[in-house]
Amino acid sequence: MSLPTMTATWPAYNAVTPRTTLQPAPAHVGLSSPVPFRSALNSRPQSEIGSDASKPKKVEWPPAVRDYVRRAFDADNAIKGISSADMQMKLKATISFYAERDAHDAIDWPTYPLPQELLQEERRMAALTLSTGAQTNGHANPLSSPPTKKRKSQDSEELAALQADATIPPWRKTNLGSRMTFDAEGHTDKRHKKNAASGDAFSKFDQADLDKRRQRFQLGNNSNKTTPPWGSPRKEEDDASNAPVIGTNQALEKSYFRLTAPPKPETVRPLHVLEKTLIMLRQKWKAEKNYNYICNQFKSLRQDLTVQHIKNAFTVKVYEIHARISLEKGDLGEYNQCQTQLKALYALGLEGKPEEFKAYRILYIVYTCNKSDMNDMLAELTLADKSHPWIKHALDVRSALALGSYHKFFKLYLAAENMGSYLMDMFIERERLNALANISRGYANVTLRFLTDELGFDNDETCREFLESHGAQNMIEEKTNEKNGVHFQVKLRDVATLFESLRAAAFRKVDIKGQI
Amino acid sequence: MEAVLEPFKQAYATGLAQPVAEFLSPIPPGRDPGRLYDFYRASNDDKIEGEVRYALKANRKTRMSNKEAEAWIDLIVGYWRAVKQIILADEAANQGRLGDRQYLAVYDTWKDLTSSFIKHISGGSLPPWAIFTLYFTANHFRRIAIKADEYLARAKPATSVNSFSDDIVVPQTARSEKLEEAARVFNRVFALCLGDRNPDMSESRKWGVYCIANLQFKTYFKLKAISLSKNVVKSIAAQSDLPPFHLYPRAHRVTYRYYTGVLAFLQEDYAQAEKDLQEAWDSCYARSQKNKSLILTYLIPCRLITQHAIPSATLLAEAPGLARLIGPLVSCIKKGDLTGFDNALAEGEPAFVKRRIFLTLERSRDIALRNLLRKVYLAAGYDELKEGQTDKDRIRKSRIPLINFATALRMGLSGEGSGQVVEDDEVECLLANQIYKGLMKGYISREHAMVVLNKKGAFPGTRI
């Protein structure tokens, strides 16, 4: 379940069990599978087949098919030991199998084996397989594979077992296995349910998700000494699968890989190495400014901290630095992840710069225009917070925009501290358009200089470029008068509608990667 | 046992949901505070099922089918078990040692009761009206879940959040774990109502849709998972074969409209919010003070935005608590007193934020500002009469120096504790804003440092 109050973003390396292998499913002998002769077409994914089947087509059966059906029911063709019910089922399956694929014409019905013959053949082969274990036989159509849906969970089960074998001592194996399968089941379940219920109102409270979540919570509770009795039945299992890894890797650099299984200790760097890594990364960032590299390194750094359950001032520092760097590069998705973590880390009472990041969070919410988040944010601030200069600045930004005072807003923009101006850069264009929409309604014309000042541009040139790039190129004209000498007038009235539509468009899309 | 089940039989004989729900209540009625205790003492764990079965089946008066009788037996036994835990928890509380464990036992037994109720209703063993009895049971379940969470929170304070087991840190872990569980149970009840395929509408569980939806809203709001409510609204909207809305009981309708109104309000769809809240207001029982006050809490900010309308004194008087809260704000808007407005807003901020109306109320500062600017306009007086014109023809001065507005703003903001300095450019900015928002008609001429207002309707909606 994802309760929206928890603005936690799922980290990229949350342990999940995707299909990481293409190895074929173990050959199961699905004798009772109603779909015959699948091999010709079994490259089709199950889901597609399923969706076809769900909406039966009204078909006018071709005469060949009708004749085939008639022959199937003919008493002369009955085979001893195959009941009429079995035969009918098989018949239905056979015909609908090809009907779904519009393949009736491709089949030579008069010579096609009758359902009872098919069944007989299948049974014979089954007996053969069972007795000899042989998979191949003379028949042109080998047996059908088991349904894909089942295969998937088996796959991950196997995968889990495999990984468990590889990475953890045997006494943990069962626990881990159960956890992994649990995950996999959760996924299939969810999709299943989603497909089943149209207008699905309950997917958010999906039972599997909820169980998972509850389990997660209990993981946390159990890490305390004071485990309440109702949590205890799970205790052992959780402790085992959730125990921190103790890293042994001494390398400073490490590329980030999304975890799909518990990490091996030899790939994880212990704290003292990570501390050196951080120093190295900071230097590299200053020297090279290669964001892709830095982001990747920080992610692996964070992952190593996570899997070793390291939660201290150093953790805070890592997240803070990563957050600042991603702000600098305008990577709000990554920033948002760090921010969420930081909020929780500060809540644990760890040392850091909570005021700085609260200020960012306010600006961030200003950017996302999420009113209910803002309300929650305001509810969270203490009086002391509100008087802190950084937070106060952010709050002033918020209220300036809420009251439509672009004049104040752009002054605040120029006065932003820390990384605040990077965040404000994210919505400065939008607010400039907003201000222009305002000004273009309120004035007949203004000077270029006035706009430069009001909209916080560095100089007339950039202001002019901004206007021209937004379609107001013909509205700027040179004027001379005695008082001001040469200056530029902007005839805004004529472009009021244009700016209004630009403004609306700018506010419509606030799209952030990684944002829930 | 016979004796304590007599009230059930009587209640059942009425064929109404509420009397039966009263029998199955976790709270003893005021006139008989010992009822739960007596009920509990009438049997014990071993005998309860047999005794209830005997009492219900031996009595042919009730005329229920065997299947139905079994269902009621199951429910009454479940209820007895819950009552037992309630009594035990009560006793523990009297001895001052009520911990979370006792209360969780109450929660668990009540959850079992609710679940078996769902089971029997979906199995078709109970009469159609039982869905409303279930509603009462579920509502009690909600309260019990909230209380259970309180006990849990006390037992393991929030500081013990140590689940940094993944990159996800979930703050406030499991603070309302039980209520979340309850929410899932309500979801099942809701599905039970919505998905009833009984073609006979008089027996349909579809009549329970809105009251269960309301129960879900309450739960989601409490859980601070408000957005989940939208799913409920959506699935109701998608269900085309519900009975007409106006045929539902008024209580269901008012609450439902209130919640959909608040949901629209929170999504800043003020037009829709106003419509729904108005409907709730119109149908609200005149003497339910609390409900009326709740509706007004959102309806008034709504109308401030949609119509720039401020509530009359008589309207505010209907909700004294609310009047205390937003009364000062409203009078400042009327007077165009910006400093007063800012102070009142700051004063009420915690309360407004709690009700999620702060950001909306903040926007009504525009109206306060409009009223101030309007005063400047009025103070400017009239153009001099030209020849042949009479007093009737005279028109107000439409060209007003910027400095007049700037002075007014400075006067308005120089009041105690405002600490605000207004720059000339900001005055212009605020004026441009008013024009943009349509609160004022005209334009600013920087060359002449003048504001040129429309000759007619300079301040729309204010009769000038």
UniProtKB/TrEMBL annotation, chain A:
Which top-level group of life is the source organism from? Eukaryota
For this record, the Gene Ontology CC terms, alphabetical, are: nucleus
Query: Which residue ranges does the record annotate as region Disordered?
Result: 38-58, 131-244
Q: Where is the composition biased (Polar residues)?
A: 40-49, 131-147, 218-229
Domain called PCI: residue spans: 331-499
Protein known as: PCI domain-containing protein
Organism expressing this protein natively: Ophiobolus disseminans
Its lineage opens with: Eukaryota, Fungi, Dikarya, Ascomycota, Pezizomycotina
UniProtKB/TrEMBL annotation, chain B:
Native organism: Ophiobolus disseminans
Q: Which family does it belong to?
A: Belongs to the CSN12 family.
Q: List the InterPro entries hit by this protein, alphabetically.
A: Csn12-like (IPR045114), PCI_dom (IPR000717), WH-like_DNA-bd_sf (IPR036388)
What name goes with this protein? Answer: Protein CSN12 homolog
Q: Which Pfam families match?
A: PCI
Instruction: Indicate the transmembrane segments per the record.
Output: none
- PCI domain: which residues? 254-458
Highest taxon of source: Eukaryota
Q: Name one GO molecular function term.
A: double-stranded DNA binding
